[in-house]
Amino acid sequence: MIVASFALVAGCSQQQSKPQTASGKTSPRVALVMKSLANEFFSTMADGAKKHQAAHAADYDLTVNGIKNETDLAEQVDLVEQMIAKPVNAIVIAPADSKALVPVLKRAKDAGVLVVNIDNKLDADVLKQAGFSVPFVGPDNRAGAKKVGDAVAAKLKAGDKVAIIEGVPTAFNGQQRKLGFEDAMKAAGMQIVSSQSGMWEMDKANNVAASMLGEHADLKAILCANDSMALGAVAAVEAAGKHGQVLVAGFDNIAAVKQMIADGRIAATADQHGDQLAVFGIEAALKILRGEAPPADQTTAVDLIKP
């Protein structure tokens, strides 16, 4: 089942007939395939893509799809299969898993569909084994997480105990954010006493954080690989009566954390400009389709956000 799916079409219905530009040429079909639209970051990404297509309605046809939750790999594979069958000219994808989506994306490329990878980078070794390459457009997650970690470390003292709540373990961006947090904590001389996955989800992170707080009474900070998990960690800190005693950090700068950053409940997060990330990928795909640019990786900005 597709939980969140919609299409924006320039100059035609959503049927198989392809849209025409003013010059009579067929405009390309682009599909944006994301992770869970229940996550505010991806709904923001979808909104940014919709606005871009509306402003360039004569240039391309856009279909946007999202899955039920972060771990619905089979559903995301099915969405890609649907886009191959549609057919589309390009798929811009934020893969739910860095390895599991490679085979279906290889099928897309073999079918003549351009693939552009955004947000969560596909695994380089698995791509190599599959015999194809995919341009990546997105942030340096490790560097972004280190910025967040450095901001948290500046509020602590060497030797303080900290914990990390990771994303999905097989997601490259989750792995990189964990490494960035570790880089910052090790450089500042902190003790990382626990590192566990919250699977990108608020409720799971809440349970993980509660367990961490119970096991480590002197814990000073919890670094979360996304803001949804940070929300869960904040709730656990407050339920434990440790508001102001345990710092919480996140990543994404979703609207739901802005007040918490302002009042100090979240010490820092990273803004990777989710409203523009899909746009960057779409623009890269359109340039490649027009023959204006060769497929190439593009690193996008990540900015530190703190009180």
What is the element layout, followed by pairings?
Blueprint: E1 4-8, E2 29-36, H1 40-55, E3 61-67, H2 73-85, E4 90-93, H3 102-110, E5 114-118, H4 124-130, E6 136-139, H5 141-153, E7 161-166, H6 172-188, E8 191-197, H7 202-215, E9 219-224, H8 227-239, E10 247-249, H9 258-262, E11 269-271, H10 274-289, E12 298-300, E13 303-305
Parallel strand pairs: 2-3, 2-4, 4-5, 5-6, 6-12, 7-8, 7-9, 9-10
Antiparallel strand pairs: 1-3, 11-13
Provide a descriptive summary of the structure in words.
By secondary structure, this protein is an alpha/beta fold. It has two domains: 4-134 and 274-300, Response regulator (Rossmann fold, 3-Layer(aba) Sandwich), CATH 3.40.50.2300; 141-271, Response regulator (Rossmann fold). The chain contains ten helices and 13 strands. Strands 1-3-2-4-5-6-12 form a seven-stranded mixed beta sheet, sandwiched between helices. Helix 1 packs across helix 10 (274-289) and helix 7 packs across helix 8. The radius of gyration is 20 Å and the shape is elongated. Residues 1-24 have low confidence and may be disordered.
Task: Write a compact overview of the structure shown.
With 307 residues, the protein is an alpha/beta fold. It has ten helices and 13 strands.
Helix coverage percent:
40-55%
Q: Which range does the strand content fall in?
A: 15-25%
Order of helices and strands: EEHEHEHEHEHEHEHEHEHEHEE
Q: Which structural category do the helix and sheet elements fall into?
A: alpha/beta
What overall form do the CA principal axes indicate? elongated
Task: Tell me the span between the first and last alpha carbons.
Answer: 40 Å
